[in-house]
Amino acid sequence: MKPALKSTPALRITLVCNTAWAIYTYRQGLIRMLVGRGVDVTVLAPRDRTFELLTAMGCRCIELPVASKGTNPRDDLRTLYTLYRRYRAIRPHVVFHYTIKPNIYGSIAAKLAGVQSVAVTTGLGYVFIQRSRAALVAKKLYRFAFRFPREIWFLNRDDQTAFVEQNLLVHPERARLLHGEGVDLEQFGFTPLPERAEFKFVLIGRLLWDKGVGEYVEAARQLRQRYPQARFQLLGPVGVDNPSAITRDEVAAWEREGIIDYLGEAHDVRPFIADADCVVLPSYREGVPRTLMEASAMGRPIVTTDVPGCREVVAHGVNGLLCEARSAESLAAALAGMLDMSGAERRAMAERGRQKVAQEFDERVVVETYKDLVQKMTGVLL
User: Fold this and answer.
1) Nearest Cα to Cα of residue 97 among 157, 18, 161, 11
2) Are 94 and 206 part of one and the same domain?
């Protein structure tokens, strides 16, 4: 006979990430559900402007030192020790770790503190793109740390396969595929494409070389004389804590050249998606990119790379076009293909994109997955 589920407001859940911005941007649906059911939600992350926004949502935010760029073992040990102390003080029932260093050092700290944890690989990114000693060390650390979480979630099948094939999972039976972290279909409602002579492309996200920003700029150079009606926009933070970060000075140089319109950064990307004719993400590797899910939900055709994560969202010729990664020429050809399409063809893509996201990436399904696991791990009914 199964034990009766408890119903209590005392449940404590902690979310740990290398940026508070990512918790706020990608997990609002999860936070709303947890806070709405009386859960004590703590966010551990480096302090940024979203601390206040998360606090307003009902979270407790605690600053966490994470050297995302660094490979200094002392910095990483400090992160591990800080997490251990925090877990001992908070005594969370479940910790969810996101991004590489929280996944590695948080999983170890949770084990040492006697706390249950779940690792969510939000995209293998820098470690699996680069071939370096640091990448080799990171993979060994992954293999050690990932023996401890109750479950390990992957956002796309390619990432899960990479971990299995490289023998990085001591307990492969704990791996679970989660198709992205979902999108709020009401918040990102379908919006008709603009009707105008001008055509706007926008790339939304942290401005990193690994996001294909350099290829996007070069493709814009190649196309601007042939398509004078085309505008190429960038939206997102510059100079972020990442080895692949692009500086504000580099963006300013592109602006002076007249290639790029830099829109700054925004908490709410919906007005920028609505004003675009096509959303672009020429990334080298992703988890399942939230930007593309949001763009498709709002009915925007997409141009993106045929790489893990991106191809989960875009079916070539259905709701967008795929191109080769690290190739400005291939990207330029795809952007030109989008410009050469008729309005009717782009509108059909827009409608198919909305349908695909509604069928495969509804945030409510993802939130239910979290609820079910928390219930299984704690015996508490949410």
Assistant:
1) 18
2) no
Q: Cβ–Cβ contacts within 10 Å for residue 262, how many?
A: 16
Average pLDDT along the chain, 382 residues, taken 10 residues at a time: 53 96 92 96 95 97 82 87 97 96 96 98 66 79 95 90 90 90 93 96 95 97 96 93 89 97 94 98 88 97 94 95 98 98 97 96 93 95 87
Which range of residues forms the domain containing residue 351?
Answer: 199-360
Whether residues 353 and 371 share a domain: the answer is no
**For the chain, what is the domain count?**
2
Tokens of 24: 């706020």
| Residue among 229, 128, 190 nearest 319 (CA) | 190
What CATH number should be reported for the domain holding residue 242?
Answer: 3.40.50.2000
Residues 118 and 107 in one domain: yes
Nearest to 284 by CA among 233, 183, 215: 215
Which pTM was predicted? 0.82
Run of H or E residues at 217:
helix 213-223
The widest CA-to-CA distance across the chain, in whole angstroms, is 72
